[in-house]
Specification:
The chain is α/β, with parallel strands linked by helices and about 280 residues long. It is built from nine helices and 13 strands. A five-stranded antiparallel β-sheet has the order 8-3-4-5-9. It has a four-stranded parallel β-sheet with strand order 12-11-10-13, sandwiched between helices. It has a two-stranded antiparallel ribbon with strand order 1-2. The longest helix has 14 residues, at about 265-275.
Length: about 280
């Protein structure tokens, strides 16, 4: 029998978060209750905490949840293909499923989309985020069954790994033989290295700051061919005068992407890219 309350961390104002016991709702035919094992921390979590995103409060943050199905309605079990006790990862977006964008497969751009962790307590049942013992699963949730043998701290990185494949392979259509420039060795930048290596990219270049030395080392371990410290190296010269670029590259044989919001990384990206590819 599921408990009647869930301990949750509630963001009540910018930079103010407090523990609360929130009631656990009854589960209907098309909903479920998730017992949280772990939740990834996104860059937007920090921005939400700081008040930059101006999301409504009070609210339970956390939108990269991994957990166990604690209770589920028969309709939800059939639709999602999961059952009581299954481990699942939950996607961030709640789409309507019926607008033109949803029907074309671009559900992440749904005209009526909502986002877990941005829905306030005032919208029942309130357990819309994963900084909690339990989380409510809306009928429009998208869940993915996960290998129960994986340690939670490994399984929970499904979101940045998925972003790496989305941003670095799917969107730019990276294919075997391509040269890829990844700006920033953050978690999604490193995931992009893994994705590009799996996609068969010929050369992978990762840039970072001096403070990123350890992360750049991880990038090389994950398969990056070259890393560049943009604070201490001339990126354009390094790219053009090293074996990493054996011949001029065209837009059809190369891919450019970024995995950082750092202005300093963007400042070096444009001239470096313009030197090698049409921009």
């Amino acid at each position: 029998m599921s408990p009647r309350k869930s301990l949750a961390m509630v963001l009540t104002a910018p930079r103010r978060i407090e523990p609360r016991d929130l009631p656990i709702p009854d589960i209907t035919d098309d909903t479920a209750l998730l017992r949280i094992e772990a939740c990834g921390i996104c860059g937007s979590d920090y921005e939400q905490y700081e008040g930059v995103l101006r999301t409504p409060t009070p609210v339970v943050p956390g939108h990269e949840p991994l957990g166990i199905i604690e209770a589920i309605g028969d309709g939800a079990a059939r639709r999602w293909g999961v059952d009581l006790g299954d481990r699942v990862a939950v996607e961030t977006m709640l789409s309507c499923r019926f607008c033109s964008r949803c029907l074309s497969g671009r559900y992440h751009l749904c005209e009526k989309r909502r986002i877990y962790s941005y829905i306030p307590l005032s919208e029942k049942p309130g357990l819309w985020g994963a900084y909690s013992e339990y989380m409510f699963l809306d009928p429009n949730s998208i869940v993915h069954k996960m290998d129960p043998s994986l340690p939670p701290e490994i399984a929970v990185i499904f979101n940045p790994l998925g972003a790496g494949f989305r941003w670095a392979v799917e969107v730019p259509q990276t294919k075997p033989g391509d040269t890829v420039l990844i700006l920033g060795p953050g978690q999604r930048g490193l995931a992009s290295v893994l994705a590009c290596r799996q996609a068969g990219a010929d050369t992978i270049i990762v840039t970072g700051l001096a403070a990123d030395a350890a992360k750049l080392a991880i990038a090389r371990e994950f398969g990056a061919d070259h890393t560049i410290d943009v604070e201490n190296e001339d990126t354009t010269e390094r790219v053009l005068r090293s074996p990493m670029v054996a011949e001029p590259m065209s837009s059809s044989t190369s891919r450019r992407m970024q995995s950082s919001r750092s202005p300093s990384r963007w400042a070096m990206f444009v001239p470096a890219a313009r030197s090698c590819w049409p921009v």
